[in-house]
């Protein structure tokens, strides 16, 4: 079991103190976490809850006040374990006057990756993040979404076993967000472990296997996404090929009453705004020139006869 643990914290605590050594803020209080190999783990919480502090402790950028942080079975303060970690911060600190190829070559050199491997890996990553046509542009000319994409490529240049993503969909439009979520799932399929922080709860719900919720430095909840979101009091029934009617409602209400329950709602399910947006874009690609017409206009003839 220990070999399957990529990240483990034991009573991990971080207290910030003022100039005179007095306790100023407890950023993290006795955190116990276990992240297993090959899973996507979400770290949730409002600003100031301890998410960034946790990441910095795992990367060895901060010293813990007490407790232990282990990554790949080694203390987090061991620098060598970072060779197996890829990190995408919320704001990528990249050199603005380098282009995409030069950026990946620079970070590949930091990991002592051989030239031929470095060039091939950079080419594949640039293609993977959709920047092939912009690979020669300097990063100063990139939009925030493009900088997020090259930042992800930088985080993967060393082919890491653990990928830490801080707000990975920040600055991305709905298409880019879907692309990012699909890519995160693909990283898991490759056997990589992903730790992601996000304020967008729908993103976490879509991709994460397990989550931990922090508030004021304390761990408030932890578990599988499906188990945490399941409402055991309510029972959901879905059917196809039937229309809502008063008679149907009466019969369903009587059936629920028979088994000690109460019918709360009968109606047609709704999709999400993201799903609707993506479907419309795909339909627009398949039908060039498609545009929205109000119902009154759409009911009218496309080419009304000319007046004589």
TrEMBL record:
Any GO MF annotation of the entry: ATP binding
Ligase recorded as keyword: no
Region (Disordered): 289-308
Keywords, sorted A to Z: ATP-binding, Nucleotide-binding, Transport
Domain ABC transporter: from-to ranges: 7-241
UniProt-listed PROSITE patterns: ABC_TRANSPORTER_1 (PS00211), ABC_TRANSPORTER_2 (PS50893)
InterPro entries: AAA+_ATPase, ABC_transporter-like_ATP-bd, ABC_transporter-like_CS, ABC_Transporter_VariousFunc, P-loop_NTPase
Keyword ATP-binding: yes
PANTHER family: ABC TRANSPORTER ATP-BINDING PROTEIN ALBC-RELATED
The protein, known as: ABC transporter domain-containing protein
Source organism of this protein record: Tuwongella immobilis
